[in-house]
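Meet today's protein:

…
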Amino acid sequence: MGLLNRIRDPRDVRALQPGQLPVLAGEIRGFLVEKVSATGGHLGPNLGVVELTIALHRVFQSPQDVIVWDTGHQAYVHKILTGRAEGFDRLRQHGGLSGYPSRAESAHDVIENSHASTALSYADGLAKAWEQRGLLGQQHVVAVIGDGGLTGGMAWEALNNIAGSDRQVVVVVNDNERSYSPTIGGLAHHLSTLRTTQGYERFMSWGKRLLNRTPVVGHPIYGALHGMKKGLKDIVAPQGMFEDLGLKYVGPVDGHDIAELEHALRRAKDFDGPVIVHAITEKGRGYAPAERDEADRFHGVGVIDPDTGRPLSAGGPTWTGVFADELVRIGHERSDVVAITAAMLGPTGLDRFAQAFPSRTYDVGIAEQHAATSAAGLAYGGLHPVVALYATFLNRAFDQVLMDCALHRAGVTFVLDRAGVTGDDGPSHNGMWDMAMLQVVPGLRLAAPRDESTVRRALREAVDVSDAPTVVRFPKGALGPVIDPVRVVDGLDVLLDCPAPDVLLVSVGAFASLSLDVAERLRAQGIDGRVVDPRWVKPLPAALVRQARQVRLVVVLEDGIRTGGVGSAVSQLLRDADVDVPVRNIGIPERFLDQGKRAEVLVDCGLTAQEVSREVVEAVARLQSVAEPAPQPEQAEA
């Protein structure tokens, strides 16, 4: 890889001759396939933006000019061109290169929040700051956002502000017709700002294609635009329709033609105001296995054979797979059950339901807020919607869960995949806030199943609730063993029992195996523990109060943030019942977690059987020292 080896920062990219750039692009694609196939990561999105990233770094001078990547999973090429190629051997690994932009890695990375539809707001704020400081114009702001990211409402809020000013912001739309899978929602409002230079018929054809993907409003908007011909059909630039908002448009541009991209980006850079550059790219370009993958063009891959694209290890049953299977079964039994996804049909397992019941599956795009409130409307209309999201993305829809679902007592089930520690994708993808966040929602019911059988049971129980929102959450990856209770006490599963326990271990969700391991270690230290699993952790079963009265210490083990989580709810429950038993909350600390494998992150958090049992033993020892009277000093003989 002769040219790639010479790239240490963007100045080296700018020093290349135009004829060398296709060679560099080919070397980058080969490098990406080699490295990402060995570590796993976002392969397809990065193969699609090779030429675009090269052109950006030739036209703009990062880090003086700031390039902000929406979501950031397509920033691998940016990392390579900014001197981080050597770090790809440890991509997404503990202590290694992040799979997203990272401020700690490079001055070329400004934001690292990997949630979609945010980049335009960052860019708007940065442009305002530079304007206040007299820097705007000397330094440029560029936001790269995919057509999938533009399905998020936050992007349109930002675009409205950007378009309503004369600040120089360059918005690059990376249009590959996909987010994870083919994009739903499209660019309806975006088209109202376009200023085409490609001819009226090309504009109308392109607009019709995009608008027809926009639910509800797309067809009327296209009809309105089409009705405005009025002699414009043969005019090259029908700009009258597009300049009211003040946003200029350059494109569509071939996103794999570096010379054309550079020309478009220089025009945008030189314009004294906000500009959209619309680049048409192909996700997975240049790698045949990705190009053949109609599902998501290798959006995210594990470790694969670089020649065939096939996984090197066969995966076992997963939490996602069990949920997907059970929802299809429920769908056959109940015609009122419908499914909602926010542009993640395959990753959340809803693709199986969509195949079985296409008319009962709704993809709303990257729009979690809309998904939640639309679900409330579906419930009001007599259906029971199941909204499947990654746990970290429910954060974005909290107000809608609270005010639109819970306040209205809407029977909506939220299924949260990748709950707790997820690891590889870094701090913004850990689904660690849901149990703490949802504790404050009146009427909401939250289940944390521990294995396959309890996932199936919890889902069925959830969809039977018609007067309140319900939540079922489970972690990422492979299922553990089925853990049957030794007995059930008033809805509380007892997983390990003893006649006179010293400690009550309250196990939450997938921490059942950890809790049982801790109990065995305590027994080896002469401390008897009873392990119970509430399954539904909001509201907590009253049986916990009776169980707590029998022990000296209650320990709550949860795969969620400990601040305000299930442990806090147990403490409140016992205080309200006047049960004066100490409660030890053990969970994820209140900090953003470094990336790594789930097991590695749990070690960093002290969430291992060895560390937890040590902490419990020390807590019991402190209780004993308080209970035992202090030895009295011997009195001196008279």
Observations:
- The mean pLDDT is 86.
- Residues 235 and 317 are 58 Å apart (CA to CA).
- The longest strand covers residues 553-561.
- The first helix runs from residue 10 to 14.
